[in-house]
Amino acid sequence: MDEDFFKEEIYYKDLYYTTKGKEQCAPNHSFGPTVREYFLIHIIMKGKGYFEIGNSRFNLKEGQFFIIYPNVMTYYQADEEDPWEYYWIGMRGEHLKALLTAIGFQVSHPVGNVKNFGQVKAMLQEIMAANPFDTLSRLRLQGQLYLFLSMLAHDLDGAEIKQIEKINKGVEYTKRAIEIIKDRYQDSEFLIGDISQDLSLNDSYLTAVFHKTTNRTPHEYLIDFRIQKSREYLETTDLSIAEIAEKVGYQNPLSFTRIFKSKMQISPRAYVKKIKTK
Fold this sequence. Notes:
The protein folds into two domains: 2-166, Jelly Rolls (Sandwich), CATH 2.60.120.280; 169-276, Homeodomain-like (Arc Repressor Mutant, subunit A, Orthogonal Bundle). It is 44% helix and 22% strand. The protein has ten helices and eleven strands. The longest helix has 20 residues, at 135-154. The mean pLDDT is 85. Residues 175-274 form the HTH araC/xylS-type domain.
């Protein structure tokens, strides 16, 4: 990733530069879900990926762009086979939102096609090369931002980019979290935090959406799944309690016995005896 960042602004208020950069993403590289404190425009130079906002997902490719609004939850991910490369420009300004609305952008559909792609690409290269810490260079950069937005406005045709699918991100993340749990429940060193890391999610966010979908926390689901699998072993095999405990992710058989009894109101040994007497 190549990025520079400029925080302080004393000359411009309506619209001003905050950050710019470029990145050639690895396959499936993702960012979010997260919120930004400023406007961020991504222009896709090549490759493809998808962008999510609210319950909508947009498949995007070379010559298209998407806008991230401040304080709006978004997520975007590069394609596995043809990951995108993009430039981004971050902006702030007291009247920037009103300006974007006036030239045709919508928070609910913040995407578009860059029809005069060659001209926009040349301008982007100039913007990327600008030094925001030099006063004269920054003055030129300020003018280029207005020109850049005007070019996107002329080429704005986001209506052609369909909301290809309505999604419930909470349900989707929950499904992926459950898949990870089912794949790794036997690992005694497996932690719920590993799920958040694998999905690039905040721990509290994952817990909230998981609980909303299943009425259980990820930790509770993991315990329930381990107990479910242990019951299968107890009912269908002659393995010892210690062996079963290890197979379902517990190094200490006593810990397994305690958790099993708290869930089933009976010890594993008594459970086996009860099954055999049926």
